[in-house]
Amino acid sequence: MDFSPYKALLNRMIPLSYQQDTETLLTSLLPDADSQTRYQLLAELNRLKAPCLRVLDLRKLFPGQCRPMPHRGLNHMLPPRLEQRFMQLLGQYNGEYTRGLYETLLAELAAMRKQPAMLNATPWHQPSFGTRRQEPRLQFVTPVHLHLDDGDIQANSLDISVNGLMATLPSRLTLPEEVAVSFPELAQQPGMGALVEPKRYRLTAVPQGDKGRIQLRRIEQNGAWDQALGQFIEQNQSRYGHDAQDLFDTARAQCWGQALLETGLGQSLFFDEQGRLQEVLCNRFGKKLLESWRHERPGDLLASLLPPACVLDMAARQHEPVFLYSFRVQGKKETYYFAAEQHRLEKENLLGQFVSEGQRAGTLQLYHLGIRPVLFTDQIADNLDALGRERLAPLKWQLWLTPLPAPELATPLPANARPLLPFRVLPEPRPIRLVSLRQPSQRRETRFRFETPVELLLEGATVNGVTEDISVEGLKLTLNQPVELTLPALVQLNLPELNKLGRDWNLKKLPYRLVNLSEGGRVLHLHAQDQGKGHAASRFFRALLAQNQDKLRARPESVQQPAWMMWLTRQALQQLAGPAFLLGRNDGGFYVQGSLASPVRQRLMTLLTDDKGQAQLGRLISRQLLQSIATTLQRPNGKSHLVAEIWLAADAAGSGSPQLQLNPDPAEQQRLLDGQRRVTVCLAVVNRLQLRQLDFYVPEWHRLTEASLYKTQLLEQSLAELALQCQVFNITDLAQRRCRLSAPATGPAPLPG
């Protein structure tokens, strides 16, 4: 029965039913209802008054705001606003926690989340590291004995690894720093008897808000324990090994990071130890950026714009953001290119002249540069194949190149390009490698899943294995033991089972060329040497596929993200040029869905972090401003990004909240920079996200699907709400220098492209 027409009546009857007879009350309030309706309303009323045993724990919805609220044996965690509402509802339900109270509070919570609110605080995320597991562990519950001086305590494990343990105590007890631990139940299983002997563990952490959960690290090494726990984890990894919540958080942060890479302004460049440009991680907007440096090939002047000497000089002063100015002038016979850093132009008192000449040519560009060393610490590096390791080995430095609005002079200086001749860049038509975030498929033909024994012949030795997929031109093999080969290499192999199919086929000593090696030498990617009519395996597989194609299962032709590509993207995200915010939009308006940290910009991170360590975009941008920017981006005028300069002026002593101004005029800028205030200038770059154009290549996504379909659906729903992206840069130094130019422009110039 639909009770929505009677909702107001039921809410009125509940407090009255505790003092009056329910049936008499229902008859007096609803005299025209038939007996069946009265019976169902009476049953619903009794259901709403029944006791509820569900705990209200809203810490994930309101992080840092909830406080414990015990009530008749249940410890609820509610924010102050809902705590007050909870007490009001208790008065209506005669002081009892009932199903009606629980459902009413959840309905009001859903309505509250749809209402517009201030930009919410979120935790800072580090999207580059993935699931940071030092060793495999199981989400497994089994009795654990903690051996103390005054007796033993039985606890229950929450997860187990070879050297670590998380457990829950039966009561809130104070444990010593070191404690002996044993697993009596696990010790009864075959081959695990060693676990009955206690070993010493050290208490490493007690999660806040839950004193009953402890984390322990084993400090007493024992080979029998290592073997028993390792065997137990390996046997049960597929069933108990995935922590759905950890995978959910990791996959979501990785998707946020990939959305930033694909739609952001910045380009991530990688250099070798000598400062030579090796890789350019290029998104859709980056292609427009490289168009401005077209010479003979797209983007080949980028290496000239950032010569090795300039890169090594920036590497020596990593913590200083660099602002690079550049422009090009079309002469009668050739094009002249100029580029210089801001501090050098200031040192030679040529900043105004450089800006004036660039403005006169109409090609002035300004870039924000941030360089950091490459870190080979990501877990994906362990899974690189031979080609990936060869490609990534030379990389030493990673640089973010981000275009910014260039300053303009209301009255350009007299034309005089002669002083700028030392800043002329000589083009080197050396092509650079552009790494597209959307890797094209390397498959030239359909491959089919097919397993058959194979023998690899290596200098008189034979290594056995099995084929993973087949095609006319190549094979993918998995060997029983790893091999060491140098790429490229010529190998020979036998197909013993297929060779028995007929005398017409001689499938022995087949020549193949090794094109790649992965998984430590266990997986080989082979290409038929001189394939065609003269290659026995090519002829055999052509005939096999022609006759049995409907029986074989083709491997999917979807684009696969190679491990080296995922490593490049995560390396770029490890050290962002500035913190970024991913904003979602639902019926109630905009909200911050994710905050990506930039550890190399500590001052900016401090400015955007509240006293509880949460990210606060609302300190810079109001909801009204975001709404205005979103409306502008939705107009069909071709704009992809919008910028806003936010000036924060605080007292020299740092007391009080800073005064915030948006895009102040030049006179106001000069007043703020008069030396009486501490000024911070931030540039917020906002663009609209279109998720249907993005493809997320996240390894944790597949593991999350295996662990929890519900969490995967939640992730898809949250990503569907993504609407805006905002990246913040600290341009205080740039703004101070710009204000020293004569007659600066009235507002920031548009972004290039």
From TrEMBL:
It comes from the Bacteria. GO terms for molecular function: cyclic-di-GMP binding. Pfam families: PilZ. Residues 132-186, 442-519 form the PilZ domain. This is PilZ domain-containing protein.
